Amino acid sequence: MSGANDISRRGFLVGSATAGASLALMQGCSLTDSQDRGDNTFAQPLVHEPPVRLPDLNPARWIWYPSQRCLQNTFVLFRRNVSLVGKPKKATGWISADSRYLLTVNGKRIQWGPSPCDPRWLEADPLDLTGALVAGENVIGATVLFYGVGEGTWPAGKPGFLFRLEIEYADGRVETVISDEEWRAHLCRAWPPGHYKRDFCRTLQEEFDARLYPYGWDMAEFKPDQDWLAAMPLQCSPNDPPVCASYPDYLHGFHGESDACELRARSTALLKEHMVPASELAESLWLTWKRPPQEYFEFGVPAAFDVDRSPAFTEGGPGKWHVQLDGRRGAVLTFELAEQVIGWPGFAIEAAEGTVIELLVHEAHDVGGPPLLNTHWNSWSRFVCREGVNHFETFDFESVRWLQLHIHGDPGKVTVSDIHVRRRIFPWPHPVSVQVDEPELQRLIGATVNTVNNSCQETCVDGMARERQQYSGDCGHQLHALHLAFGETTLSRRFITTFSQGQAPDGYFLDCWPAYDRLARMMERTVGLAGWGPLIDHGVGFNFDCWYHYLYTGNLKDLDEPYPRLLRFFDYLTTICDERGLLKVEGLGIPCVWIDHVAYQKQHHKQCAFNLYAAAMLQHPLPAICRAFGDKQRAERAEAFGRGLLAAAVKAFWSREHRTFVVNLPWLAKEEDIRLCDRSLATAILFDQCPDGQTDVSLRALVDCPKNMGFSYPANANWRLWALGKMGRADVILKDLRERWATMDSVLLNNTLQEDWKVTADSGSQWSHCPVSPLFVLYMTIAGIRPLEPGFGRCEIRPQLADLRELSLTARTVRGPVEFSSKGLKGDRKMTISLPPWIAGELVLPDAERVELEPTAAAVTGQRRYRLPSGKTVKLHLRTT
């Protein structure tokens, strides 16, 4: 372990930066006790809660509807009567399903799950029904959807439902309720079995007919009829996932072996749910259909309707709208929410039997634009009314800023109300605490926090509207925000575990896992029918993700599962070098290299950035992890290979004439102008890859952003910002945040961060994606808070406030909060830093700034390092910073 700590002291992103020095003025500082506690950083060892392990779930059985095959998008209702002699003292247990379940007790919604999983390591969710069960008759109900075909949250699997509940009475008696043939199963045709898929990354195109739904089925007074069959036990251990069952996957032929699979306990907290009402009715209109609406929604037939933009409603009181259908036209009501959220949209409607409603959702819409919101990946669900009042809510969650109802049917009056989204959000252990004195920047921070709420729930994904898939690389940067701003470690642990499970036999990672996309791409790439395959560069980024998780938490045990897979990936990299000793970016077969999709004009231009990136991985995070595991030989092999890649990259792409990396240098004879890319330049600065430390030209390009420099899309923008911070150019970072980020349409309209620098409404643009660098860059680069060794036992604080007048924030470390505040401008800045008792801090200031703190180890040229006392509050008055 000492080897890992020694390496980590080189810094979070390879050391501190140089900064200009001016007058050397000694400034006063004061110390106060934040609490009456000691100053020994290591007196309190970290205690890591191990992941919960499932007990033996026998004699519970996996069950399903009696059948020999299961169609895609099949819903089965499972019902169990439970008679209790008294109110239970405790009722806890486990539940799981493939693919999704909604649990109710006595008709009350309890929870929805499970999390997206690799089918070989499906998770079971914990149950606590203590408050839901009553003395007397109870009914436990589960609505279970089997996707059957892959999507962004489900790569594969077989159907099944599992339940085990232990009920304890006050007198000590214990009863157990298990899933077995005592449960009754109903094939619910309110959702037609075998219904078509919505989109490449979304399976459920929901169509629900209330006339076919057995309302009240999860209440004690309901009397099941002949359509409620005894559940069929599956031939599968309850501690294995149902992919191991003998029940056939007739569509794909998937099957798991028990010795290679395991049902696991849920590894993160259950999400919280709360209602978010629509803020207003924004628009209404009429559609006269020239083709059947069903045909339009199935096939997107053009010119299917004419539009009449006269109002389609009358006010019915607060939160109520009346529509008078004429039997010929469809009424369209479009509602908006105050901000973009993730959850289950719903509404209430009083209408005649057979009235049809398409519920459409969208991230962005211009009033007066397309009459239907069907411009965003077929994001609609259909509901058919029974007579009277109907309460509808989608079964699967959506990404919503705009919610639209298209209502059509026989003539008659319709009343719409209760337009809402049942929002789902992770129960963060701490609120984000960041305050700045500029309203535009504060709004940007709020939008970034809301974006994290949308993208980090059970998996850490790119965007919830289109894919809902977990990536490393550009999406893995979100882990910095989880640790520093929210103090959340379990989501990060789940990320490195579940992403690592998606690894091809050759050793490359599937890059979005657990998800369907890359399974399909591998098939398509095999026969040359797809442009993208598994992204090798995301495997490089995943090494960084694992190292950062260890650095933030100090919990090496969390890397036990990913570590052997990191080694296999390293071995794979050694097999894809070209004759120049460079990793290839073309002709790779199934996988490919992405790096970024907007910063490069040609695929071969990515070779420079990819090799610098891989060289950095091989010389920094991977050998550090190897040494933490005591694997010195692997560490040295990785470092040697990394040195070779760097040397080859310098030889191929370093221009002595231009004194920077030129991404098309080998092809300049055929290409007219030199091309740079922000990713290569940032990587070279961050990891000291420029020959003889010649960084001036690269830095100037990152500052000026010339036209011949490829500029990465937002989720990759942090590399440039980090490099600017290392070189002391926080002024450029803040200018970027103010002018490029805070002015984003998504920030101003949706309280989110968009996928691309330019987005449009009523399109496929994603308005809530994962580019959350404004939040973590404030922590890591502006306040400059970074761990120097695993577990935050030592940290560095290198503040660079530039012209930011006020900043206060709290970094939520595993050893307690690090509190930072600054007021004033350069020449008269007052700064306060508080450390918990178990963190030893080092303050990095420009050489010209002198403070009354104990100097520590020698700093790089132009800097001074001071010891920050543990368990103390330090107040500084800075004159040159």
Notes on the structure:
By secondary structure, the chain is of the alpha+beta class. Among the domains are: 18-44 and 792-878, Maltose phosphorylase, domain 3, CATH 2.60.420.10; 63-267, Jelly Rolls, CATH 2.60.120.260; 273-425, Galactose-binding domain-like (Jelly Rolls, Sandwich). The strands form ten sheets. Strands 15, 19, 20, 21, 22, 23, 24, 25, 26, 27, 28 and 29 form a twelve-stranded mixed sheet that branches. β35 (785-787) and β36 (794-797) form a beta hairpin. The protein is globular and about 80 Å long. Residues 1-43 have low confidence and may be disordered.
Quickly list its features.
881 residues; alpha+beta; Maltose phosphorylase, domain 3; Jelly Rolls; six-stranded antiparallel β-sheet; 17 helices; disordered N terminus
What is the CA-based Rg, rounded?
Answer: 29 Å
Number of strands: 43
Query: Class of the domain at 63-267 in CATH?
Result: Mainly Beta
Question: What percent of residues adopt helix (DSSP H or I)?
Answer: 10-25%
Question: Can you count the helices?
Answer: 17
Overall geometry: globular
- The name CATH uses for the topology of the domain at 63-267 is Jelly Rolls
Strand count, sense and barrel status of the largest sheet are: 12 strands, mixed
- How far apart the termini lie comes to 36 Å
Give the CATH superfamily of the domain at 63-267: Galactose-binding domain-like
User: What percentage of the residues does DSSP assign to strands (E)?
Assistant: 25-35%
Low-confidence stretches at least 5 residues in length (pLDDT < 50)?
1-43
Provide mean pLDDT, rounded: 95
CATH architecture label name of the domain at 63-267:
Sandwich
- Class derived from helix and strand content: alpha+beta
